[in-house]
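Submission sheet (multi-component)
Chains listed below:
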Amino acid sequence: MLNAEEQRLADLLKSAVPEPPRQLSADQITMRRARRSRGPRAVWTRPALAAAAVVIIGVTTALAARHWSAGTAPAPRGTGQPAASASPSPGRTPGSPARSVRVPLVIGMTAASAEQVLERLGLSVKVTETYIAVLNAQPGIVVTQFPVAGTTVPSKTTVSVIVPVP
Amino acid sequence: MTESPDFADFVRRRSSALLRSAWLLTGGDWALAEDLVQTAFGEVWKRWDRISGMEAPDAYAHKVMVNTFLRWRGRRWTREIASGRIPETGAVTGGFGQVDTRESVRQALRELTAKQRAVITLRYFEDRSEAETAAIMGCSVGTVKSQSAKALARLRHVPGLADVLTGGTAC
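Outcome: structure written.
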């Protein structure tokens, strides 16, 4: 079956392979298997986190859509002075009907204090309660706002905030 | 640890034969060879209920090993699993001459591709026919022939092996 060269190779291989340094035992293998089966846990947390992210993005988008469809004019970005704060900007032309307001960060406040802060700045507030579970959110604490903090908007603009309820 | 005594026995009986083949497959690396055999036994253990009833569980385990090895191709070996068990490696050597051939065989194997090494191991170390080799590797007999021809051609150019293969005559 084998030619001379193949036969020599076969002999060579058989003489070259050493004794295994140690034998395997069954408990090494079953131990290894037990370790392996622990793997999937890390695998399925990832989709769960992704799902949570999708929920948050979806909620924000829905809020934004509702915000614009409510008839509020989009805020012209960057029209205010860079340092424009909550105070009315005195440098504006008298004919301008709206004063610019920079939207403060209300995420993390309770719904009531967010409302208070925004109304004091001359903004109107729309609070949306959600039953959707939001990751790491406490009930009654604002998790999302629109427009986002730092945006300069005309006063009386409606700021939407989302508050999870249990 | 609940394991069937059959499986423990099976591992004890088969491990050294599989380890030797794995040594050739992995190009003479005991650590990798042990990993390979353990992985193969692990696959067997998962289906042990079914396999233990087979006519030839040995052949099954062997086939799993060869195919596991072929799947490892091109993959860098980073899946090592740490274990609390420290291996005791008793050095088994058989004189300088034997160490010499072993070293040149190891060098030669590393010149080959994984598939060529598998063919060489099955055909010439385990004395399997071309048809058997093809069945184990899941390829055609033609592939076995061409791979072993290529492997031999390559081995002829390995310095320490050339004169051994040609029967001691200078070429």
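Remark: Chain A touches chain B through 32 residues (CB under 8 Å).
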